[in-house]
Amino acid sequence: MKVFLKHLILLMACIMGITAALLLFKVPFVYSIFLCVVVYFSAVCYISQHIMSRTLAKKPNKFPQAFMLVEFGKIFLHIVVLAGFVYAHKNDPSSAKAFLVFFAAMFLIYLVFGTLELHRLASANRQHPGEK
After folding, report:
1. Model confidence over 68-114: pLDDT tens digits?
2. Are residues 117 and 56 in contact, defined by beta-carbon separation less than 8 angstroms?
3. Residue 27 DSSP code
């Protein structure tokens, strides 16, 4: 879990640095809410990874059910966040479009990151079952 946390912090720092640089240069379609989106995705990714690692260590036979439940919860949470932001900014379609594009990009980045880390965790558990 420590390796995952290091990778997550590094990914979050890189994305936040790029976003902050774009904010400093006053790129018109970059908003300060994007920094909150990065923190949101990092928190969701950490919580889901924590649940998956605990399930894999304690009850490996329940892992598929826990994985599907966590993924469903993440998708539902993402839909709620998207709907809330779009509803709150329904009078400003340009910011809503920019948010949707950024959110989709973050979703893909964190999906790939979470999948790679979960694969690393599962392969480590196959080699050394019962260890963290």
Report:
1. 999 999 999 999 999 998 898 888 888 888 888 889 999 999 999 98
2. no
3. -
